[in-house]
Amino acid sequence: MLRWILSWMTFWMACGHSAEWPQWRGPGHDGRWNPPGVPADPAACEPQCRWTVEVGGGFGGVTVADGRVYLMERVTEPEERERLRCFSAEDGTQLWVKEWPVRYASLEYGNGPRSSVTLSEGAAFALGATGRVGCWDAATGVERWHRDVVEELGARQPKWGFAASPVREGENILLHVGAQPEGCVVALQAATGEEVWRGGDDAAGYCTPMVVTHGGRRQVIQWGPGRVMGLEAASGSTLWSYPYPIRYGVSIAQPLYLDGLLLVSSYWHGARALRLNAAGDAVELAWKDEEGLCGLMAAPLEKEGTVFFLDRHHGLQALDLATGKIHWRDENTLTPADRNPQMSLVWMDETRDLAALLNADGELVMARLTAEARTELGRWQVS
Questions:
Q1: Domains of the chain
Q2: Given a cut of 80, is residue 6 above it in pLDDT?
Q3: Confidence band for 42, pLDDT divided at 50, 70 and 90
Q4: Which of 143, 302, 303, 316 is disulfide-compatible with 330, CB 3.0–4.6 A?
């Protein structure tokens, strides 16, 4: 299976502006891009294809830094391999490629890697679907280190493969790999790949770790197949844990944190809002909705306490984070109704409530999102 990569970045490059997207969900891991110079009338700036590149199978998004675009892929000829590729953002020229043998065997949805490449301080970090993690020089592709999290760390590959993207936190790289024992999250030295700590009693799901500052300290929030947990970022020790077992272990969409409230939602079991105490070492249930807020993969956006969330039944909807009250539903007009509805959401100009939505039909939709309504400004077929 082949994918065609049409860099989403070229939408604003066509208007003369660009900005970096160095990791999963952007600079702040929260879907906020807000590049400079977004035009007053976005509908007048139709996307222009700058270049296309034929690549192998995979589900991970592209990342961009220092004029270079990165992604992972899987190819099967002449032999099965995962690859990390780097392109020029200007014209799509391949700058370097690194590859390693892999065997997906019975891995379900085995097209290719699931995670995004993480770019930080001149390094590129990548985790493959079967557990090979590595670090490369982002400019040259020279490998600095690699490890097998299954063979070396005792991780257990989940049914649909390792999917959580690496997260840079200080001098460490955080991996959600379900290492045994007590290694739901494992921290490796970014420079060497050596293990620093492991923490959390849960298996591997598919959700990328999230790091927040609460109560004066950094903590890693991880949603696994059996629970949501907070780990001390410096040591991995468990600060709190909230049981939330998920059917088939599909803990996927990244939770949303704001001012001590944490929103997490699953496909079959609905949403939970957890309130952290002042010290950040305990949580309580603030509210839950098991019928109207059922997400799967799409991570939500937030502005001033309003959350924009893709629900399996009603499509995109706006809700109040503090109470769970639903303001409006778009009833599947922005992305097609499906058993597993999909859409990527990115703030393009948050001050003007302007978001870019890439739907399951390959349409790029520019929309204004507020607590009162959503207003579609333009829609283009881009893939």
A1: 3-290 (2.130.10.10)
A2: no
A3: confident
A4: 316
Name which of 82, 184, 181 is nearest 129 in CA terms: 82
Number of residues written out for the chain: 383
Write the secondary structure of the chain as one string of H (helix), E (strand) and C (coil): CCEEECCCCHHHHCCCCCCCECCCCCCCCCCECCCCCCCCCHHHCCCCCCCCEEECECCCCCEEECCEEEEEEEECCCCCEEEEEEEECCCCCEEEEEEEECCCCCCCCCCCCCCCCEEECCEEEEECCCCEEEEEECCCCCEEEEEEHHHHHCECCCCCCCCCCCEEECCEEEEEEEECCCEEEEEEECCCCCEEEEECCCCCCCCCCEEEEECCEEEEEEECCCEEEEEECCCCCEEEEEECCCHHHCCCCCCEEECCEEEEEECCCEEEEEEECCCCCCEEEEEEECCCCCCCCCCCEEECCEEEEEECCCEEEEEECCCCCEEEECCCCCCCCCCCCCEEEEEEEHHHCEEEEEECCCEEEEEEECCCCEEEEEEEECC
